[in-house]
Amino acid sequence: MVSSQTWLKIAGLSGASAVLLGAIGAHAIKSRTEVMKDVWKTASTYHFMHTLALSLAASQITANRKRNIVCFLFGCGTLLFSGSLYVVVYMDERKPFSYPAPIGGMMLLAGWLAFG
Questions:
Q1: Alpha-carbon Rg of the chain, whole angstroms?
Q2: With contact defined as beta carbons under 8 Å apart, do 59 and 8 qualify?
Q3: Residue predicted with more confidence, 115 or 31
Q4: DSSP letter string over 26-69?
Q5: Fewest beta carbons less than 10 Å away: which of 20, 24, 61, 110?
Q6: What pLDDT digit, counting tens, does each position of 46-79 carry?
Q7: Residue 75: helix, strand or coil by DSSP?
Q8: How far apart are CA 46 and CA 96, in angstroms?
Q9: Claim: this prediction has a pTM higher than 0.90
Q10: What does the alpha-carbon distance between residue 80 and residue 105 come to, in Å, rounded to a whole number?
Q11: Is 85 helix (H, G, I), strand (E, B) or coil?
Q12: Dist CA 6 CA 19 (whole Å)
């Protein structure tokens, strides 16, 4: 079983990367189309939102098994969803880089359902 402290460390790394990637989006992707800028903004928003959810789950869920399931779903879902969107904008091409996004989105949804 993964401890709540480990999940909080993962959440901290996710938060730091969210800030870094948000700053990159604000400054380094100015040459991209408006559609691609919106894709980056979506990735960044979901990244921040689910980093907070991961932190909350790690610190508030006391049952080890439930905490591990919820945190795993939030962590991997964020990586697949937001990560694939960041790559789409970086590569300036949707396919095949957008393929993991729906899987990540379903993991985020499952994380919220498991949280409740």
A1: 15
A2: yes
A3: 115
A4: HHT-TTS-HHHHHHHHHHHHHHHHHHHHHHHHHHH--SHHHHHH
A5: 20
A6: 999 999 999 999 999 999 999 999 999 999 999 9
A7: helix
A8: 21
A9: yes
A10: 8
A11: helix
A12: 20
